[in-house]
Design brief:
This protein is α/β, with parallel strands linked by helices. The chain has one domain: Rossmann fold (3-Layer(aba) Sandwich). The chain has a seven-stranded mixed sheet with strand order 3-2-1-4-5-7-6, sandwiched between helices. Helix 1 crosses helix 4, helix 2 crosses helix 3 and helix 6 packs across helix 7. It starts with 12 loop residues before the first helix and ends with a strand. Bound molecules: S-adenosylmethionine. S-adenosylmethionine binds next to helix 3.
Length: 222
């Protein structure tokens, strides 16, 4: 099926609340486990989470790696407000986790270059996907670890509806609609391969890790 882009920012309060209250613990924990598996030697330094939303993954990574400073960037104020509230509940992390509001491309960040860049479910929101890959190149240190996970677009609208029912059948309608829109807005593996080739990131590896997720991982050139 053809890609149907969706709005980039999730900046309506109800939408952000439904997202922040949904249980993404399984895929988010899988994201953290994948990071540990792909980058076993990396346990300290700086990490940037692009499109961090309500911050669940950034906080999980900060908990797992006490030597890591984690900066989460998002353009949505409501999403970040949920992240800040979670951070207030975990004062131990306050020194190492920062949530920053900014819109890609062009967002200003506190550090020039990060040792690791991660992103979950941002790519499919971007009208121009190259915005993500250029952000990775612009903000990653030489040799930085990169882990990007996103949905891939199903073959048909029927398949997309099937995935929504299978994984979000019991969720509020606003979340089910978001999920369906996201599947329709997602890229295929071949499209992502072309995106990486277009900006010299073809050393990153693309793998399909579930019936709806793909992962792009590797290191920036040293
Ligand atoms: C589906 S959410 C994913 C949130 C989080 N990474 C997670 O896995 O739970 C996508 C997030 O990307 C943000 N976003 C979309 N386009 C953006 C842009 N151009 N600049 C900054 N943030 C953006 C949205 O506001 C939203 O919070």
């Amino acid at each position: 099926m053809q890609r149907i882009p969706e709005p980039e920012l999730m900046d309506e309060f109800e939408q952000a609340r439904a997202y922040a209250e949904a249980d993404f613990s399984e895929p988010n924990e899988r994201f953290v486990a994948l990071f540990a598996e792909k980058f076993p030697g990396l346990s300290a330094g700086s990490m940037l989470d692009l499109g961090c939303g309500p911050g669940d993954i950034a906080l999980r990574l900060a908990r797992r790696y006490p030597g890591l400073d984690v900066h989460g960037l998002d353009g949505s104020g409501p999403m970040l407000a949920f992240g800040q509230a979670r951070l207030r509940d975990e004062p131990d992390l306050a020194e190492r986790v920062r949530f920053l509001q900014g819109i890609l491309p062009g967002a200003k960040l506190p550090l020039d270059a990060y040792d690791a860049i991660v992103s979950n479910s941002l790519l499919h929101h971007l009208h121009d996907p190259m915005v993500l890959w250029h952000a990775v190149l612009d903000h990653g240190a030489p040799g930085a670890a990169v882990l990007v996970m996103d949905l891939f677009r199903p073959a048909s609208t029927a398949a997309a509806h099937g995935i929504v029912e299978a994984y979000a059948g019991g969720e509020p309608d606003v979340l089910k609609q978001d999920f369906y829109n996201s599947l329709c807005a997602a890229f295929t593996r071949d499209e992502v391969r072309e995106q990486l080739a277009a900006c010299g990131l073809e050393t990153l590896d693309i793998s399909v890790v579930s019936d709806r997720h793909m992962v792009v991982a590797g290191r920036l050139p040293a």
